[in-house]
Amino acid sequence: MNRSVRILSACFAVILLFSLIIPGSAGAAGESCAPSQAVRKHYINVSVATLWKEPSINRTLDQPSLTSPVDIRKWTASMSVSQRRWLTGRTETQALYGQEVRLLQVKGSWVKVAVVDQATSKSQYGYPGWLPSSQVMTTTSAYDGCPFVVVSAKTAVLYKQDKQSKALEVSFNTRLPVAAQEDSWIKVHTPAGGTAWLKAKDALVYEQAVDIPQPSGTDLVHTAKRFLGLPYLWAGGSAYGFDCSGFTSAVYAFHGIKLPRDASEQIKEGRPIALDELQPGDLLFFAYNQGKGKVHHVAMYAGDGKMIHSPKAGKTVEIIPISTPEYAQEFAGARRYIGE
């Protein structure tokens, strides 16, 4: 080896050494994932975005859910039971911070989008609805190949760079790309292109979606029980309030299983299960016309002849016997979505 080659080799060795010991460099516990250039994509840029059937049909009291940032706690706490019922048929679904949406239409300060990972027959692109354009962020940078976090706490705080100042509170099931992991903290990429810190105890980290462990039925029920007492919210899909199918799809999604957004379509997935074969985690469906009409409700079998569900406005997530007359007379079938 001549002298110039030895010098060049030594330089590479020094570079490699520094890359291993300097925080934030490749291979260190610091920054570990960089964005890749992609086509334009659109992401939810508020903790929870509520999608409406039409633009500008909201009431004054809905304003906290329409701003950027939103105040979902204030909005849900301000509504009476009748005001919650008013949302029926007017709101469509909700999307969480960082969820990808497809832009379908623009009308003034409102945009119609489809939530990409919420399957529905309403649109080939995802579950559609209208929301203020200020709640959507457009970017050409993607982190599709990065590890990601799934928020496991009912709600979690994203902190600014000082790890003390609150940036945003996000819901259970929020997924964000991981930028770095450091002791008891996880650094995540945000939709707006910045980063924030999340306490490691509030989330789970996966290299890719297929790494999420296959749940048992007991796992699904355990997750569902964490939301006992949470008030029902029509179109709700977050830890601030669920509707019936928002509840079941969120619990399954947390465990890596995607279900259609609506109960009427969830019943078309999985495999049929007889009542005497029910196991925890199976879903129970209820329909008009004594179970022969359109499916309008879904619950999860909790074991011991009971079910857990998010019933209707004015009630909370609860566990009741599956023999409860109101539901038993409308039973339309059961489905299982996990292996034996």
UniProtKB/TrEMBL annotation:
Q: Output the superkingdom of the source species.
A: Bacteria
Question: What keywords appear on the UniProt entry?
Answer: Hydrolase, Protease, Signal, Thiol protease
The residue range of the signal peptide is 1-28
Q: Which organism is it from?
A: Paenibacillus zeirhizosphaerae
Pfam families from the entry? NLPC_P60, SH3_YKFC_2nd
The record's family statement is:
Belongs to the peptidase C40 family.
- Asked if Nucleotidyltransferase is a keyword of the record, the answer is no
- PROSITE patterns attached to this UniProt entry: NLPC_P60 (PS51935)
* Annotated protein name in UniProt: C40 family peptidase
Instruction: Supply the InterPro entries for this chain.
Output: NLP_P60_dom, Papain-like_cys_pep_sf, Peptidase_C40, SH3_YKFC_2nd
